[in-house]
Amino acid sequence: MGRILDLSKRNWQARCIYELIMEYKNDIEHEIDDTLIIEIFDNGRERGYTLKYKDKELSFAENRNSDDIVVYPFKWENNKNIEQDYKTKSKYFKREQFHKVFDYILEYFGINL
């Protein structure tokens, strides 16, 4: 008997990064001293994930204008500088560079694996 596994809620780039986080979950948990929260990210144009650790927040998704990966290393909610942060802090990676995005995320949160 078969089954249907629906992963359509997130694009494959964001899903690859999420799966890397899950693959290294035990190692990451060993390196952090608080809770790393993973939430759904959806800004109306892009869908991916948001990570929260201590006072830092980072979101990543497939860029709405390309298949590239965009990383938003800032908080979206209650951010008075959202437009400025969006213009100056957003990071873009080629779609096949999800390992580099994973490394960037670890570095951003100060996690050494």
Characterise the protein shown here.
By secondary structure, this protein is an alpha+beta fold. Helices cover about 35% and strands about 25% of the residues. The protein is built from four helices and five strands. The protein has helices spanning about 10-25, 25-30, 80-90, 100-110, and strands at about 35-40, 45-55, 55-60, 70, 90-95. It has a five-stranded antiparallel sheet with strand order 1-2-3-4-5. Strand 3 and strand 4 (about 70) form a beta hairpin. The model has no long low-confidence stretch (mean pLDDT about 90).
Round the mean pLDDT to the nearest integer and report it: 88
Whole-angstrom Rg = 14 Å
Number of domains: 1
Q: What sort of overall outline do the alpha carbons produce when their principal axes are compared?
A: globular
Report the portion of residues in β strands. 15-25%
Order of helices and strands: HHEEEEHEH
Q: Count the beta strands.
A: 5
Give start-end ranges of low-pLDDT stretches. Answer: none
Number of helices: 4
* Coarse structural class: alpha+beta
Helix content: 25-40%
Spatial ordering of strands, largest sheet: 1-2-3-4-5
Largest sheet: 5 strands, antiparallel
Task: Give the structure's gist in a few sentences.
The chain has 113 residues and is of the alpha+beta class. It has four helices and five strands, in the order ααββββαβα.
Write the layout of secondary structure elements.
Elements: H1 12-23, H2 25-31, E1 36-42, E2 47-53, E3 56-62, E4 69-72, H3 82-89, E5 91-93, H4 98-109
Antiparallel strand pairs: 1-2, 2-3, 3-4, 4-5
Helix pairs in contact: 1-4
